[in-house]
Amino acid sequence: MIYAYKAVPFIGSSAEQVKPYDVAKQLSALINSESLSGWQFYQINSVNISVVAGCLSALFGASSYEKRYDMVIFRQECNENDKNVVNKIAVDIKPIEKGPPEGADSKCPDCSSPTRHDDQACWKCSADFSHPQGWKPIRT
Q1: Which of 16, 42, 64, 106 has the fewest CB atoms within 10 Å, counting from its CB?
Q2: Which pLDDT score, from 0 to 100, does residue 121 have?
């Protein structure tokens, strides 16, 4: 049997206090949504990404570090002659579009986008606020 595979990033969110049940519902919704599109849940893997400090961050002493992301892996059965599945995957994958968070009370020092003081990263430029040497949101 031949399978086509698709990885979808997953970051659960919970208001104020982390509630595992909320995150479990979000993960279930993602799996069920992909299932309706013909994709079978396969596994969850972690991917480490090396984040290189930008010019401005490096100037203030930030260095490169690794960040971990969870990826939900789906698979779809295909036959040897079906080349369209791979093309279909490339078309289906779209970047996650996010907007400014509700209740923004700070701004990102890198791009000045509205953020919340307890955000881990900027929604627009992905500046990492969780790294010990990283930027912190500026209260507005």
Answers
A1: 16
A2: 73
